[in-house]
Amino acid sequence: MLKRTYGVVMLGVSAAVLTACGQSATETVYTQFEAAAEEEHAFEEQQEPLQQAEQEEAALYEELIKLDMEAFDQIVSLSDQALESVQARADMLEQEKQGIEDGYSEFEGALAEFEDIEDSSVRELAESVETAMSERYESYQVLYDHYKESLALDEEIYTMLKEEELDAETLTEQVEATNAKYDEVVDATNTFNENTDAYNEAKKAFYDASDLEVRYEE
């Protein structure tokens, strides 16, 4: 059976609202951090439709494997629908990645301000945010690569199913390879989510230690 266990990649970056101004450098860093979160909305917006597409595609696959060759025309039709779903998910993935890239680019704009933060302990916390964000960004690249590879494998399966002389052993091998890739996607998703949590915690610690007065939105 083809597994569908991606889950939803949750961004979860806490939004902070400035209510009082502090040091110029600290305020500028805050502004850049929050601008980065704003840029990632394109990433967040893809999560629900991507999960919905995965669920619908899984239902198509379950319907496909119940059919025998006497219903070959229906197999072809359902496979074509599944292939359209794969392409739709590929498009969503690229939009998701663009959100991550835009956010990271905005985040990098804060780095030049770190050296102007007068309090060394606050500066170190800002640097911890940079480390956490870098690890998060790198883990997303791994997730993106695995997910993109899984899309290619899905496409191969649905294309195979349209072959009237398809060998069952060949299909089984392809399904096993695809399931192994899904496992890598799940692992990469978990790592990315853990790094997102670490980034959120590092950012909050920086805000709390700075002379900025912030309140957090759930």
Describe, in short, the structure shown.
The protein has 218 residues and is mainly alpha-helical. It is 73% helix and 5% strand.
Describe the model.
The chain is mainly α. It has one domain (23-210): YkyA-like (Four Helix Bundle (Hemerythrin (Met), subunit A), Up-down Bundle), CATH 1.20.120.570. Helix content is 73%, strand content 5%. It contains six helices and two strands, in the order βααααααβ. The chain has helices at residues 24-39, 41-45, 47-65, 72-108, 120-160, 168-209, and strands at residues 15-20, 213-217. The chain has a two-stranded antiparallel ribbon. Helix 4 runs antiparallel to helix 5 (120-160). The protein is elongated. The two termini are 39 Å apart.
CATH C-level? Mainly Alpha
The CATH architecture can be named as: Up-down Bundle
User: CATH superfamily, called what?
Assistant: YkyA-like
Q: What is the 3D shape?
A: elongated
Strand content of the residues, in percent?
Answer: 5-15%
Largest sheet: 2 strands, antiparallel
Which whole number gives the mean pLDDT? 87
Q: Specify the helix fraction band.
A: over 70%
Number of domains: 1
Query: In CATH terms, what is the fold-level topology?
Result: Four Helix Bundle (Hemerythrin (Met), subunit A)
Structural class: mainly alpha
Low-confidence parts lasting 5 or more residues at pLDDT below 50? 7-15, 19-23
* Element pattern in H and E: EHHHHHHE
How many H/I helical runs? 6
Strand arrangement across the biggest beta sheet: 1-2
